[in-house]
Design brief:
This protein is α+β, with helices and mostly antiparallel strands. Helix content is 19%, strand content 20%.
């Protein structure tokens, strides 16, 4: 409920302060109506969320439809991480009004590579065997645009690994990808 309240607060802020010319959907400016904090951590504190041991993240869409918003956010490079990160356990959601559509998702993800005694596993997206995967990514809709020199590129493939909090070691775990294969759309990946 607190994550949902945080999402509702930010959805309200976005609706009343939106401007097509000067707007960063994740930022809030002190003094504006509905302000609850400049940063995600300040907004979490405002909603009485103790997120110690978790990473907190936020994703926004402008469709006012949770299923369509998740579908669109999964089609991005940056914003899909909140949904696909191993260890994501809690999600808050709020939407705006018909006149000012916005969908705000706030997620809490375990900040360790294990949950209890169980190591968290990585996630590949699109998943092997997934059908009807788009072949096109309209990258200019993603902010910041990961490929500003192009109007569209192939659909992004991503690997998501557990968030890592370095508590005792001298560095983050290393990952070595030895090989991967990408098949044409007509080939089913088993």
């Amino acid at each position: 409920p607190k994550l949902t309240r945080m999402s509702e607060n930010h959805a309200y802020y976005v609706q009343v302060n939106y401007s097509d010319t000067l707007f960063d959907g994740h930022a809030e400016i002190e003094g504006n109506p509905g302000f609850t904090g400049n940063t995600l951590s300040q907004r979490a504190e405002s909603a009485s969320i103790d997120y110690g041991g978790f990473w907190i993240s936020e994703s926004l869409s402008r469709v006012n439809n949770p299923a369509l918003a998740v579908d669109r956010l999964l089609g991005t490079v940056y914003h899909r991480a909140a949904f696909l990160a191993p260890g994501t356990r809690y999600l808050g959601y709020a939407q705006g009004t018909t006149e000012r559509p916005v969908d705000v998702f706030t997620a809490l993800t375990f900040a360790d590579i294990v949950e209890g005694d169980t190591p968290l596993q990585g996630v590949v997206y699109p998943a092997p065997g997934m059908r009807a995967v788009p072949t096109f990514f309209l990258n200019k809709l993603e902010k910041p645009n990961p490929f500003p020199e192009h109007d569209g590129v192939g659909y992004p493939i991503s690997m998501h690994f557990p968030r890592y909090r370095d508590t005792e070691s001298n560095g983050e775990p290393k990952l070595l990808i030895g090989e991967f294969t990408l098949y044409e759309g007509s080939t089913l990946i088993e």
